[in-house]
Amino acid sequence: MLRLEAVELAQEGFHLSADWELPQGAIVAVIGPSGAGKSSLLSAIAGFFPPVSGEIYVGEQSLSGLSPGARPLTILFQDQNLFPHLTLAENIGLGLHPSLKLSKAEQARVAEVLEQVDLAGLGERKPAQLSGGQLARAALARAMLRARPILLLDEPFAALGPALKIEMLALVEKVARASGATVLMVTHDPADAQRIADLTVLVSDGTAHAPAPTEALFANPPAALQAYLGQ
Ligand SMILES: Nc1ncnc2c1ncn2[C@@H]1O[C@H](COP(=O)(O)OP(=O)(O)OP(=O)(O)O)[C@@H](O)[C@H]1O
């Protein structure tokens, strides 16, 4: 369970409040106008942007004082950051050990996630020898290997074509449901939310609104969502 308790973010004229919690295992879309603070919200949870007040909890554990790497989560950005000089298997292995000294069991685990994202047999390739969709799948595989209870996705598939994006969303859903991870996914496409998100957080007017069931929210959008959707 992820809980934001009276969280206030502020930075040069920008302000965002959040006060809600998510059930463990929920897939949650984060939508709202450009500049509203969607990325800032994820950055705060990940530990890159400290709130001016409030607390963020995972279960009973407060995340205050925990560095980004020590938090029980993985964040995936649009810029997938695979290292060009490492093979795909090595890039994914970094999710386990920065030193890349993997045991036989860990190497087998890397092969297993490669297979899960449909990249079996491509482990020895370098990123330059992969397509955009394969790179996106590789980055997701690395995130999966970390097996943290929370996965934060900041528009990681925005640069992919429609068919590939749908494929990646399906993969996220499959992986999240299988592992029981909670997913928070920033997207600019309402269809992404409707495709996989149980709940949707609307970020607008200085507030990250409490998560609402996606279907009901879009069936009866509040004024701020109507404005965002151009209705
Ligand atoms: N490093 C920074 N320094 C100063 N201001 C920043 C910084 N990063 C973001 N901001 C500002 O904080 C506000 C929220 O930005 P944020 O990126 O969180 O919005 P967003 O909803 O994710 O936008 P988009 O949909 O365009 O990615 C904006 O006003 C932005 O200009």
TrEMBL record:
Q: Does the keyword Oxidoreductase apply?
A: no
- UniProt cross-references to Gene3D superfamilies, sorted A to Z: P-loop containing nucleotide triphosphate hydrolases
Q: Where is the ABC transporter domain?
A: 2-230
Q: Which residue spans adopt a coiled-coil conformation according to this UniProt entry?
A: none
Give the species: Pseudogemmobacter lacusdianii
Can you say what this protein is called? ATP-binding cassette domain-containing protein
* Record-linked Pfam families: ABC_tran (PF00005)
MF terms in GO: ATP binding
Domain of life, source organism? Bacteria
Keywords recorded for this protein, A-Z: ATP-binding, Cell inner membrane, Cell membrane, Membrane, Nucleotide-binding, Translocase, Transport
